[in-house]
Amino acid sequence: MALKTYGTMAVDWEQRVDMERLRRQRLDRIKTLLARSELGSLLCFDMNNVRYITATHIGMWAQDKVSRFTLLPQSGRADSEMDEPIMWDFGSAAKHHQLYCPWMGERSRAGISLLRGAMSPEMGRAEDVARKIKVELEMRGLHKEPVGIDVIEPPVLFALQREGLTIVDGQQLMSDARAIKTEDEITLLNTSSMMVDAAYDELYRAMKPGMSENQCVGLASKVLYDLGSEYVEGVNAISGERCNPHPHVFSDRVLRPGDPAYFDILHSYMGYRTCYYRTFSVGFASHALVDAYKRCREYLDAAISLVRPGRTTGEIASVWPKAQEFGFPNEEACFGLQYGHGIGLAIWEKPVISRLVSIEHSYEIKPGMVFALETFWPSSDGWSAARIEEEIVVTETGHEIITRFPAEQLLVAGQRYYTVGGPLPATRETEPALSPRVIEMVEASAAIETGRPERVRIETVVAVE
């Protein structure tokens, strides 16, 4: 598979992402899986699933509202139009889709649920949603067949059941459809990673003592939005003693010389996400952090080397350390630190790779999967740590890494410090190395203070490299 990197625009002089093919292939894939299932229809409220099925989008502000919904009926009916998805959206958005999304047309309709409880039960919105679904299923003779649902508000669920509909889990079917990416999905994921490459380059150049974690977040976010990101979901910026244990959220902490700093950049381009960790040291790195980084990278490389069709998630997870080997009582307590997960329209998709679940419940790796592998290792100093992540496309014969900002060795960010003897080394002890003259002075002084005739020998710090 030859992965391509384009700009973010559509042009007439080059074949780039084929949006019509993207829409068609995504819908065809879930239609095929639905036809093979025991479900009569799929009812989706998860906005990522709505986008996958209908190729519509009204902004990431709606991501957590669970208010837009789409119904996908079983295929194979006499009237092919009856097999197509129907979508209910905010009134003005539904009208916009009719005008600008010809693949939806009149099947884009106004319809509002409870807005996650903002509409109270007596307003009747749950019953209205249930009636809309029941009518469409009756028209197709599907009202007695199971309805698969991804996520739903309890009042809507109860209203559907009162209408006599059999509600079952439809989330797994959607997850299976989205596990294998199309050619255009992979191109969009690659483009999304390219934007984070650029954000890391700007961060690397900008980081220095006095810069705060939230300033790092602001800088990365600006780079991403300038390049065309539709949504910066999060920039986890973690530095200094906050690195261990890992808090998964940024703060106003200010960077200091010798600090470890790691970041996870999560954003969306055309709906397709990134999950992309990198670790730096500010000004210089301690030997403890260098050692932790090497260990972290070794576990990551071991996992990446196993990625190819026919391998399993269990095989990958097996090369990672057990929880007790890096300070945790069990696999649930350290979940997410030695971790792999599919990535697409959501940050976490199939397959999940973890010692918690993958050893006993393994999942076959297949061409077209795109997933992230991330590792963590605490330093021997008890407070610093390293975190690295790569995003990987599974090809027909192996894999290709699409996260390109360098991470083979620990990078030191910030201006180089100079002394009269030249530049300070990038790797050095956090405690000063004592010169022979200082050692002699300390030993002599200690002998006088203690009243002992013999000199008091002191432990010397390991010399600076």
Brief account:
The protein has 465 residues and is α+β, with helices and mostly antiparallel strands. It has helices at residues 19-36, 47-54, 91-100, 125-139, 154-162, 171-179, 183-206, 213-227, 287-304, 313-318, 436-450; strands spanning 41-44, 69-73, 86-89, 108-110, 147-149, 167-169, 231-239, 260-269, 272-273, 276-282, 339-342, 349-353, 370-378, 385-394, 399-401, 411-413, 418-419, 422-423.
How does this model look, in words?
Strands 4-3-2-1-5-6 form a 6-stranded mixed beta sheet, sandwiched between helices. Strands 7, 8, 9, 10 and 16 form a 5-stranded mixed beta sheet that branches. Strands 12-11-13-14-15 form a 5-stranded antiparallel beta sheet. It is elongated, with a radius of gyration of 27 Å. The protein has 465 residues and is of the alpha+beta class. It is built from 11 helices and 18 strands. The chain folds into 3 domains: 19-171, 3-Layer(aba) Sandwich (Creatine Amidinohydrolase, Chain A, domain 1); 183-413, Alpha-Beta Complex (Creatine Amidinohydrolase); 431-465, no CATH class. β8 (260-269) and β9 form a beta hairpin. The chain is 32% helix and 19% strand. Mean pLDDT is 93; it is low at 460-465.
Notable traits:
single chain; 465 residues; alpha+beta; Creatine Amidinohydrolase, Chain A, domain 1; Creatine Amidinohydrolase; six-stranded mixed sheet; five-stranded mixed sheet; elongated
Instruction: Summarize the helix and strand pattern as letters.
Output: HEHEEHEHEHEHHHEEEEHHEEEEEEEEH
Q: Can you count the helices? A: 11
Helix content class: 25-40%
How many domains in all?
Answer: 3
Mean pLDDT, nearest integer?
Answer: 93
Tell me the name of the CATH class of the largest domain.
Answer: Alpha Beta
Give the C-alpha Rg: 27 Å
- Range of strand content: 15-25%
Helix/strand structural class: alpha+beta
The shape, in one word, is: elongated
Strands, total number:
18
Q: What would CATH call the homologous superfamily of the largest domain?
A: Creatinase/methionine aminopeptidase superfamily
Please give the order of strands in the largest beta sheet: 4-3-2-1-5-6
Distance between the termini: 44 Å
CATH topology of the largest domain: Creatine Amidinohydrolase
Q: For the report, how would you describe the main beta sheet?
A: 6 strands, mixed
| Unreliable stretches covering 5 or more consecutive residues | 460-465
